[in-house]
Structure formats: C-alpha cells, structure tokens
Design a protein that fits this description.
With 184 residues, the chain is mainly α. It has 2 domains: 42 residues, no CATH class; 106 residues, no CATH class. It is built from 9 helices and 2 strands; from the N terminus they run H-H-H-H-H-H-H-H-H-E-E. A hairpin with a 2-residue loop joins strand 1 and strand 2. Helix 4 packs antiparallel against helix 7. The longest helix is centred in the last third of the chain and has 28 residues. The radius of gyration is 26 Å and the shape is extended.
C-alpha cells in the first residue's frame, strides 16, 4: 500500500485483495508518508492491524439517498412498462418519449406511489410531492438532462459539419482522412 489506510476496516479490505487464489501466498506491505496519521501507525502498527472494525452505517433519513431511490424506482417502473422507449438515448429523447416520461410521472401509477411511500422514512414522506415536482418541473432534474443532451447534440453536429468541410478540402486530422462515412 502506498499509504496507511484511514481505518482498520480499510486496511483489512485493501490487504484482503492479495492472495485470493488457493495456490498463492501473499503479504501486505505498507509504505508510510510523512503525515501524522501514517507515522502514528508506523510507530504502533498493531493498532491498525488489530484495530476495531465497526459495521458501516447510514441514516435512512438521508434525503439525498431517498430521493435517488425514488427517482430510480420511477425510471425502473417506466422502463418495465415502456422498454421500447429505451433502445438508445436518441430514441428516448427524439422519439417523444421524454414528454411521455414527464406525463408518466405526473400520473404516476398507484403501485409505484405505494412502493415509494413504503420505503420513504416517516420523517420524509411529506417531501415526496416536492421531490416529484423537482424532477419534472421546467427547471428540474429531467429538464436539465434534456437540455444537456440537446446542447451536446448541437456541438456534435457542429463538429461533424466542420470535419466534413475539412475532409472535402482534403485536410486531414491526425494520420487519417475524414470522410462522410465516419459519421454515417
């Protein structure tokens, strides 16, 4: 290891990567930097090796995690219902599916609503309608993604046009000549 991990749990995880095969032998070598943390454990390595490992924990009331789970549940239910809408990004955005997704969220099926209210902690249940609005509003998450997609498409179109113009003039890019076949 190029430095001393922050906790005994991190040390065990990193050291555990070595010697996984039955027919191999491994050892762990740790280099310490000139930091107070590394030097502390360099001088007392047993504290790191035999240190207490606490189980991971997180708050179920973590708004960011709950919102992401809600968004994932909505998108997953839409995908199950309309899998043809997701052949590729272009099919989704250019085929009218984006507007259909917005409508789907506005009229969210009762089963999806029930699922969301089942996993949202009691302390956060009152925020679900606001989160849904944040997702579908004109300046919401989905609108920002759609805007980014259209900006990137415009940029790619511009670059394509420039490359084709250069190719028509016989200019090369790198070691290869561009042709319209590259972009078809």
């Amino acid at each position: 290891m190029k430095n001393m991990p922050p906790t005994p749990a991190n040390y065990a995880q990193r050291a555990g990567r070595a010697g996984r095969r039955k027919d191999s032998v491994a050892y762990s070598l740790t280099f310490c930097r000139l930091s107070s943390h590394d030097l502390t454990y360099f001088n007392a390595p047993v504290k790191m090796i035999k240190g207490k490992i606490y189980p991971p924990k997180f708050k179920t009331e973590n708004e960011k995690i709950v919102k992401r789970h809600m968004n994932a549940a909505i998108i997953a239910s839409y995908w199950r219902a309309y899998s043809a809408a997701y052949k590729d990004v272009g099919t989704f955005f250019d085929g009218g599916n984006y507007e259909f997704l917005l409508r789907y969220i506005k009229e969210l099926p009762k089963t999806v609503q029930e699922y969301i209210y089942e996993f949202v902690p009691v302390e956060l249940k009152g925020k679900v309608s606001n989160w849904l609005e944040e997702l579908i509003s004109e300046d919401g998450i989905l609108a920002k993604v759609y805007s980014q997609y259209t900006v990137e498409l415009e940029e790619l179109s511009k670059l394509r046009k420039e490359a084709l113009e250069k190719a028509a003039q016989g200019d090369s890019v790198g070691d290869c000549r561009l042709s319209s076949k590259i972009f078809d």
